[in-house]
Structure formats: C-alpha cells, structure tokens
Task: inverse folding
C-alpha cells in the first residue's frame, strides 16, 4: 500500500464521504489504513496513557492536522467526519495496545523480561515499560478480568473481517443501484459467510426470524414502510431485535444523532431544504402571477402546506421587516 505520509508536499488523496460523514471507496479505505499506521507511531499516540480519554487533546489535534495535510474531502471536512476519524483513531489505538499485550504479556515471565522484548519496532521503550507495569499492576489485572468477562458475553459476531460497516453498506447500496439496504438485509449479509453458513447459532435463529417477517412484508401492502432503511422504530429488524438504545443504531453504526422518530436526520435536513426551495418558488410565483386568480388559488393551497420565506427563520424575518 502507498505510504501516504511519504507523499510530496502539496499532493493529497481526495476522499468522498457518505451522507453520515463516513469515508467511502478505496480512498476511504486508504485513509482508515493511514490512521491505523499513524496511531502506532509513539510520537503521535503514546501507548502509556491508561485510556483514550486520557490522551491529551494536543496529540489528537496534531493527528487530525496531519491527516488534513494528506487527504482532502468531498466536500469540506465536517465536524461529523472529524468525529468519525477521531473515533477510528481511538479504536485502532486500543486495538494496537491489545495486540501488544497479546504478543508481549506472559505470566510466566518477570516484568523486566517482558520489558526487554518489545513486540513491535514502532514502540518507544519507555512507553512500553510503563505499559508492562500497568499490565502487572493490581488495577490492570482487575480491569483485564472485567474486559474478558464482558467480551465473553458478547455473542453477536459478524464476518466482515477488516471491512467496516459503512463501507459494507456502501458496497451493498452500489450493487443495488443506489437503493440502501434495510437493517434486516444488512444483518443477514454481515452474518453470512461466503460459503452460505451463519457465524453463530444465535445469528442463525435471528436470520430465520428476519426472513420470515420479510416474506410476510412482501405479501402485505406495507412492504415499503417495514423495509424503510430510515425507519428505525418500526422496521423488520426492530421487530425482531427490539428498540434501539442511545448512541448507536444497530446495523448502521455510529450516526450523527440517535433518531427519535421514524426518519433519519439526513432525511429531515433534505426535506427542510426542499421546503425552503419550494417556499422560494411560491413567493416568486405570487409576484409573477399576482393578477391570475386561478394560479393564486393553487399557490395559496401550497402555501398552507409549505412554509415560505416569511416564516422560515430569523434571517428571513429580518429581511421581510426591512422591506
């Protein structure tokens, strides 16, 4: 893979993002891989901080700025995309520390013996020493047991490998010629191996129930409402797996805002923009056809349903007052 950090000054990779702000395409994959290599460099993301929450903001800011020097975004880098990138930094940094412990921690060895054998050449010796001391401490041992216990209870495994969820959804949407898959379809796809087998028995039971409800929906008049990819409160997936909790929408990943209604924030924003455009059009037509009673009757009917510029915000009110 091209080492983006070696790109000459002024050269960069252009990355497209989806409407949630997730990087897409091979450029997006290159970006996420670059983040993985970045957080493994001791000068940018030291490993001797207990958790990502303890990472000084200056380190995170420097990494974001370095990313911006090698990548450009379509369109500009938004706060949501920046948050997604920082979340990915956190995930990959924690994965790196987990890899180090998997390779370097050995209960049969002393601290000094473990410290003497650093499993990755990118690791700073002094940082690794601190990390080993933490692994062997009473606090480190206690947290490790808690994490193992929590991980053992997690049964909802997937078979995507290194392919992240937003990119998988993007691939499915492209294959379906622009139609975003439902959460039920996403769950089935991400739990089914290439040979057709299901990752776990529990997932197989869920998939069987999802398919039954999908067949029921196909025979009813409410297929669109039950399959709507933005309806997270009443779609097939929610009927099988239950309602969402705050922070994430299952089978869609981490979104800008947890939906509190049947429509996504993206859909609401798009509706608002269309309403504003229609409101502008109505205002112009009222002036243009002021003498035509039939057209004015139609415009008045539209005006009852769609707010025009004199009722769509503070800026518009100021303009109207001045006129």
Result:
């Amino acid at each position: 893979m091209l080492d983006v950090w070696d790109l000459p000054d002024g050269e960069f990779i252009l990355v497209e993002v989806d409407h949630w702000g997730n990087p897409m395409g091979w450029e997006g994959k290159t970006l996420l891989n670059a983040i993985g290599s970045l957080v493994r460099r001791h000068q940018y993301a030291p490993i001797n901080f207990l958790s990502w929450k303890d990472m000084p903001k200056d380190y995170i800011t420097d990494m974001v700025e370095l990313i911006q020097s090698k990548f450009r975004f379509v369109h500009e880098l938004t706060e949501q995309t920046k948050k997604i990138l920082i979340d990915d930094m956190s995930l990959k940094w924690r994965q790196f520390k987990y890899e180090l412990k998997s390779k370097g921690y050995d209960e049969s060895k002393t601290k000094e013996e473990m410290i003497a054998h650093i499993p990755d050449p990118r690791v700073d010796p002094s940082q690794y020493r601190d990390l080993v001391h933490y692994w062997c401490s009473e606090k480190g041992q206690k947290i490790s047991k808690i994490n193992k216990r929590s991980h053992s209870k997690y049964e909802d495994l997937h078979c995507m490998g290194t392919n992240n969820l937003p990119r998988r959804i993007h691939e499915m949407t492209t294959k379906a010629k622009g139609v975003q898959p439902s959460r039920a379809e996403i769950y089935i796809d991400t739990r089914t191996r290439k040979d057709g087998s299901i990752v776990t028995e529990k997932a197989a039971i869920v998939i069987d129930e999802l398919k039954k409800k999908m067949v029921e929906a196909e025979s009813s008049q409410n297929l669109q409402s039950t399959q709507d990819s933005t309806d997270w409160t009443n779609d097939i997936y929610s009927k099988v797996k239950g309602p969402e909790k705050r922070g994430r929408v299952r089978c869609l990943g981490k979104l800008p805002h947890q939906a509190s209604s049947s429509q996504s924030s993206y859909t609401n924003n798009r509706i608002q923009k269309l309403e504003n455009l229609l409101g502008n059009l109505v205002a112009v037509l009222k002036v243009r056809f002021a003498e035509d009673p039939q057209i004015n009757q139609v415009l008045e009917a539209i005006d009852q349903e769609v707010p025009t510029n004199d009722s769509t915000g503070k800026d518009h009110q100021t303009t109207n007052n001045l006129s």
Q: What stands out?
A: The longest helix spans residues 79-104. The chain is about 55% helix and 0% strand. The longest strand covers residues 13-16. Strands lie at 13-16, 71-74.
